[in-house]
From TrEMBL:
Recorded family membership: Belongs to the histidinol dehydrogenase family.
Source species, domain of life: Bacteria
EC number of the protein: 1.1.1.23
Catalytic activity as recorded in UniProt: L-histidinol + 2 NAD(+) + H2O = L-histidine + 2 NADH + 3 H(+)
Function field: Catalyzes the sequential NAD-dependent oxidations of L-histidinol to L-histidinaldehyde and then to L-histidine.
Record's protein name: Histidinol dehydrogenase
Binding site for NAD(+): Y120, Q182, N205
InterPro entries tied to this protein: Ald_DH/histidinol_DH (IPR016161), Histidinol_DH_CS (IPR001692), Histidinol_DH_monofunct (IPR022695), Hstdl_DH (IPR012131)
Length: 428
């Protein structure tokens, strides 16, 4: 990791968008799924995942086999993590409300869960049971009636046992062996095996992200997930081994992941630089981590913690760690971050797995206006309006004035016809 100026650090986060070739490929896949439905899913799964399937849906027998295969320690860890995630998200529930005014007008808001949600879980060689928990449990807590999970199969047509068991623990209703842009298209438009959903959530590769972008409007989506990223703000009290380990925890995700240290201590910067190199050599995914650090890793030294917060706010990182003597004081200066970890023992992987808050977070600077995945993402809200006659007679003339100022005569007439009726009744 190089020690660079803060402007160079900010430029390191600039990313390239989707290419025209990628757009054309994904548009073609979506069109094919809309036309050929299950037939397209089976053909594309054979083409991209080298899996020749006889059925797209995971069977009860496969789920039972997964429960027998999974390590009991992993099962217990999944159950405990699920319980913490569930408890955290239950605190996010919002209720419908109604307010009656003195003139008899009743206003309110009705909160209802979405009916059906699709969850994309990366697969193939990867195994991400934590992704299942984080994407499914908020939907279940929100009251979603049906959760459909899609995940690419391995070449032998199977889905890893930890992924299937996590789906059972989380409360998934249906699991489909399909991945890539074709899975997103199936969820958005429906096929014989995949029901059309109202919203699609979950991370994936560039083709998955692009497909989600293209089907938005047909269905809702959570966000367009970018590469993983972490910013650590540290002062001279931080342990360089802790800082280095946490930077590497994100670098191992992929060669486009970002790991950045902002520190007030030049000595710590040099110590972390050396510690990253030492620890990286022991990692199984060290080549991926090294590539990520070379492209998107950086260390910058600033004069004071307020400046560190300003630089971090410009980056609006997915994960932000405050490894300083008084993280709670510094918290007041943080405006943009997906998740904020305070103190030496609040390591980012704690948030990934067991703390409870969701690990599906805004990336690529979108923490300036996006929030972590939560219960609110799985509900919709309807306004309730009941106007009494008294209130209508009072406010009707104002509506006519406003409608006529916009040239909307029918709007004005809808009010005037009622005012005229009331005037006629009063004359009688």
């Amino acid at each position: 990791m190089d020690i660079v100026g803060k402007e160079t650090l900010v430029r390191k986060r600039e990313r390239v968008g989707f290419s025209s070739e990628e757009m054309e490929t994904v548009r073609g896949i979506i069109a094919r799924v809309k036309e050929e439905r299950d037939q397209a899913l089976l053909a594309l799964t054979k083409q991209f995942d080298r899996a020749e399937l006889s059925a797209l849906l995971v069977s009860e027998a496969e789920l039972a086999q997964a429960e027998r295969e999974v390590d009991p320690k992993l099962l217990e860890a999944l159950r405990q993590a699920a319980e913490r995630i569930r408890r955290y998200h239950e605190k996010q529930r919002t209720q419908s409300w109604i307010s009656e005014e003195a003139d008899g007008t009743i206003l309110g808001q009705r909160v209802q869960p979405l009916e059906r949600v699709g969850v994309y879980v990366p697969g193939g060689r990867a195994v991400y049971p934590s992704t299942v928990l984080m994407n499914v449990i908020p939907a279940v807590v929100a009251g979603v009636e049906e959760v459909v999970m899609v995940t690419p199969p391995r070449a032998d047509g199977s889905v890893p046992a930890p992924t299937l068991v996590a789906a059972l623990v989380a409360g998934v209703n249906k699991i489909v062996k399909v991945g890539g842009a074709q899975a997103v298209a199936a969820l958005a438009y429906g096929t014989e095996s995949v029901p059309k959903v109202d919203k699609i959530v979950g991370p994936g590769n560039r083709f998955v992200a692009l497909a989600k972008q293209l089907v938005f409007g047909e269905v809702d989506i959570d966000s367009i997930a970018g590469p993983s990223e972490i910013v650590v703000i540290a002062d001279e009290t931080a342990d360089p081994a802790f800082v280095a380990a946490d930077l590497l925890s994100q670098a191992e995700h992929g060669d486009d992941s970002s790991s950045i240290l902002i520190t007030t201590s030049a000595d710590l910067a040099r110590e972390v630089q050396a510690e990253v190199e030492r620890q990286c050599g022991r990692l199984e995914r060290r080549e991926i981590a090294r590539a990520a650090l070379a492209q998107y890793g950086a260390i910058t030294v600033v004069d004071h913690l307020r400046e560190a917060a300003e630089v971090s706010n410009r980056l609006a990182p997915e994960h932000l760690e405050l490894m300083v003597a008084d993280p709670w004081q510094l918290l007041g200066h943080i405006r943009h971050a997906g998740a904020i970890f305070l103190g030496a023992y609040s390591s980012e992987p704690i948030g990934d797995y067991v703390a409870g808050p969701n690990h599906v977070l805004p990336t690529a600077g979108t923490a300036r206006f996006f929030s972590p995945l939560g219960v609110d993402h799985f509900v919709k809200k309807s306004s309730l309006i009941y106007y009494s006659k008294e209130a209508f007679l009072r406010d009707g003339p104002k509506v006519i004035t406003l409608a006529e100022s916009e040239g909307l005569g029918a709007h004005a007439a809808a009010i005037q016809v009622r005012l005229d009726r009331e005037e006629a009744c009063a004359d009688d």
